[in-house]
Amino acid sequence: MIRENEHLVDTYLHSLKTTNHSPRTIENYHCDLKKFINWYEKTQTLNLARANTKTIENYQHYLMTGDILYKKAGFFEKIALIFIQILKFRMGRKKYGVLKAGILPNNALAIGSRKRHLSAIKNFFTFLQEIHADKGGKFKVNPVKSKIHVIKLKDADIEHTKMLGAEDWMKLKEACWRTQERLTVNLLYFGGLRLSEITHLKFSDFNEHKRSVTFIRKGGSRHELFLQNFELIYKDVQFMQRKAPSEYLFANKNGLPVTSRTMSNRIMSLLKKANTSDGLSPHSFRKACATNLYRKTKDLLLVRDYLNHSDAKVTQTYIDKALFQREMFLLGTSEKPS
């Protein structure tokens, strides 16, 4: 990756970090952008700012085919390759291959992975448009158009997050008898918090009088959440605060917030300890929170705001419609999440 493009990627990744994206998300963006820019530098002669829709269409084809990309070798690369082939010949190996260099291997991506990959590139170019808006007009156009980025997914192509059901929740409550364990699962189940949000919670974020918690959401915005079962959760917060070595609820030995990966590992250990169903993950709590809140209120917009989604269409995907429809059938109604 040439220095100028590397600097653009580093700047973007730093902005993601400052807007409370998790380390795992940032690493995924890094891998996707590195792959795209390596491809671009090996196939295009124009500056990155000159990328257009045709460029993205070619890259999309590259992601679909799984071909190996070659670049014609330069003079010094040819000398090195000839030297390697002479060594192989003297070692009794058959001489083979052509003088190509800059090999960029690629495995064909499934439709969902391509969608995520193109989404990362689109967000990257949107960021470049914003920071170059007053700098000579570079990156005027985002080459990733909606018709390319929005790939229609068949339901079979989507790996749905499994919801934490009532039976598994009861098992988990019985297994989590330590205060920190109990506080962790309650914040996830009743608050629907993301890993990057729960790891950065501070004791000072809780307001007993308002029965709320105010914290930094994904994207960097500060959000006041009127927490379900606040008394139950706040009781454990107060108990932990008595001997807390740090301002953070979940801190490491240095007093800093634990990473999202550490928190994820802790939660997976708790699920295993409680002998819950296979396929559950930290995100299963968020889906359970959305479904339970909708069952209680029948207000999709309320659930959207509670989970801090930008669009109610996203919130709909979090509601377990199959469970909801089974309940409605037993009650003799046909009401569905709207």
Uncertain runs with pLDDT below 50, 5 residues or more? 94-102, 148-158
Q: What proportion of the residues form beta strands (DSSP E)?
A: 5-15%
Number of strands: 5
Order of helices and strands: HHHEHEHHHHHEEEHHHHHH
Q: What is the helix fraction of residues, given as a range?
A: 55-70%
CATH class of the largest domain: Mainly Alpha
Whole-Å distance between the termini? 47 Å
Structural classification: mainly alpha
Task: Note the quaternary state here.
Answer: single chain
Backbone shape: elongated
Number of helices: 15
Q: Widest sheet: strand order? A: 3-4-5
CATH superfamily of the largest domain: Intergrase catalytic core
* CATH architecture term of the largest domain: Orthogonal Bundle
Q: Whole-number radius of gyration?
A: 25 Å
Summarize the structure.
With 338 residues, the chain is mainly α. Helices cover 55% and strands 6% of the residues. It has a three-stranded antiparallel sheet, with no helix packed on it. Strands 1-2 form a two-stranded antiparallel ribbon.
